[in-house]
Amino acid sequence: MIENLSLDDIKGFLSKMNGVAASNKDYLIDLDSKMGDGDLGLTMAAVFSAIDEFAGTYDENDIGGLLMKGGMAMAKAAPSTMGTLMATGFMRGGKAVKGCTQLKAAELSSFWTAFVEGIMERGKSKPGEKTIIDALYPAAEAWKAAGNADLVSTAAAAGAAAAEGLEKTRDMVAQHGRAAYYQEKSREIQDPGATIGSILINTFSDYLTGLDG
To answer: Which among 149, 142, 67, 73 is positioned nearest to 100, based on CA atoms?
Structure first.
């Protein structure tokens, strides 16, 4: 049973997410090309490579500081719309846990809540608009509802909530970005942003499961 995560654990997750983003690059490019400009895969590979590289040089014992400064590195690596939103999520989430040397359930709930709220504010979006929020918001709510439950089971519940939120985007009409031009034609197409949101949340769950094993 895992009750807290250390700085090295967070660095390990960022390394894993870097690999996952790279391996999903072509998939995300193809998915994004259906309604967007097709650069999502390149953007996500760039931002997660940047934060992983930064984590490798970070020598302070402050998880929030790592995530905040890592978010800044992400913003510099890919100053596109989704790159900026993902960077904002990490910067805001990091700020919520600044000074922490370990993260328990309460701190992780604070991190994911701030992560989502930061993206919602920056992107002027809310649940139900066919964006990354539709995967991230239910995941953050799962962390809020968990209390002091085991981190592995809570992360799994958040992953399931994100996957369910992603599936629901197939019934939504896009309200933001290029996809919004398609209006009703955007229905039945899985949202690319929500896809990377679900991948992020489920990669975190997979990483925690690996630690528990």
So the answer is: 67
Asked if 65 and 103 count as a contact pair (C-beta separation under 8 A), the reply is no
Number of C-beta neighbours around residue 90 at 10 A? 27
DSSP secondary structure string, 145-212? HHTT--HHHHHHHHHHHHHHHHHHGGGPPP-STGGGGGGGGGTTSPPHHHHHHHHHHHHHHHHHHHHH
Q: What domains can you pick out in the chain, each with its CATH number?
A: 5-212 (1.25.40.340)
Residues 178, 17: Cα–Cα separation, whole Å = 27
Give residue 34's pLDDT: 78
Which CA distances in Å does 40 have to 37, 74, 81, 116, 180? 8, 14, 10, 19, 16
**Integer distance in angstroms from the first to the last C-alpha of the chain?**
9
- Coil, helix or strand at residue 103: strand
Task: Select from 162, 151, 146, 144 the least CA-distant residue to 209.
Answer: 151
The tens digit of pLDDT for each residue in 74-83 reads 999 988 889 9
pLDDT tens digits along 144-165: 998 777 899 999 999 999 999 9
CA distance 17 to 103: 18
